[in-house]
Amino acid sequence: MxxxxxxxxxxxxxxxxxxxxxxxxxxxxxxASAWGVSVEITGWERFPAGFSWTTIGFTATAGGKARxxxxxxxxxxxxxxxxxxxxxxxxxxxxxxxxxxxVPSVYGxxxxxxxxxxxxxxxxxxxxxxxxxxxxxxxxxxxxxxxTLAVDxxxxxxxxxxxxxxxxxxxxxWADVDTRxxxxxxxxxxxxxxxxxxxxxxxxxxxxxxxxMHWLRRHAPASGRAAIVHGDFRVGNFLQVGGRITAVLDxxxxxxxxxxxxxxxxxxxxxxxxxxxxxxxxDREQVLARYAQQSGIAVDMRxxxxxxxxxxxxxxxxxxxxxxxxxxxxxxDYRMASMGFQLAxxxxxxxxxxxxxx
Length: 358
Known about the structure:
By secondary structure, the chain is α+β, with helices and mostly antiparallel strands. The chain has a domain at about 20-125: 2-Layer Sandwich (Phosphorylase Kinase, domain 1). The chain has helices spanning about 20-35, 85-95, 135-140, 145-160, 170-175, 180-195, 205-220, 260-265, 285-295, 300-330, 345-355, and strands spanning about 40-45, 55-60, 65-75, 105-110, 120-125, 225-230, 240, 245-250, 255. The strands form three sheets. Strands 1-2-3-5-4 form a five-stranded antiparallel β-sheet, with helices on both faces. It is globular, with a radius of gyration of 20 Å. The two termini are about 30 Å apart.
């Protein structure tokens, strides 16, 4: 059983007021309570990218010391609503100081929506830019930078999967997770997110989604190997400076799972920018070999193929949910409506992968 919140597909979502004059004082009060000293917030800057958690940068000055911070808000009208900040906070707290795994520092969280209007997390701000293959970054970046990033990428993922999660606060978060059904857990979670388990809404979904759900249920591996799974580990979710990763970001999908789930997700062609490279930047075989060496985990490509299908099913679930949220008025970001154009190509890729897996 997953520790994630139960999804209510018909709950009304109230818009969050992100204005600095409204939210800023509430965040300052939260930090002042945590730090035991008054806090002044300046430099409030909302970043436009992303469909899920809203990201805001600001400077918090307390006791004469200024900290550059990031506020992540789980907007109830966002792509993955409803949100809980607890899993991401707990994971980042558990991973502080892990060798070869740079992550932002964490300063606090709350799932009490009455504080600022939604669940939220406060982290440190890390220097760096985000390489994206479809922006032409691969061509502009020195190939030596791609090679060092590939090493850091593989090492960071191996470091995540090597952590003894039972010796961290994550053990309490995942105490009720059945480690024999990790793949099946994910199938059911994303089927629910897409609304596939709602008998009154079956007409809203392409038959291929139902077929894929049943295929995944029939073929779910049961290795019993359980590790911290980032859930969205890929090019685009880390920062870099000079060809070295400075922080692995976006831990909102962290969960207990099979480590090969992360391998499959990172290598999906939809993240490759039309290139044969992993994430559009890295030599695929080099990354897999380095990961296996550093993690001690054999990369069984038969299992990876299953998780590739699951990854695309997850993508299709997000796309479907995004469309339905806009249609029902539960989402206010109309960029989400355009995500529906990606559904057909995603399902075609699912067909290809199922044929390969078979």
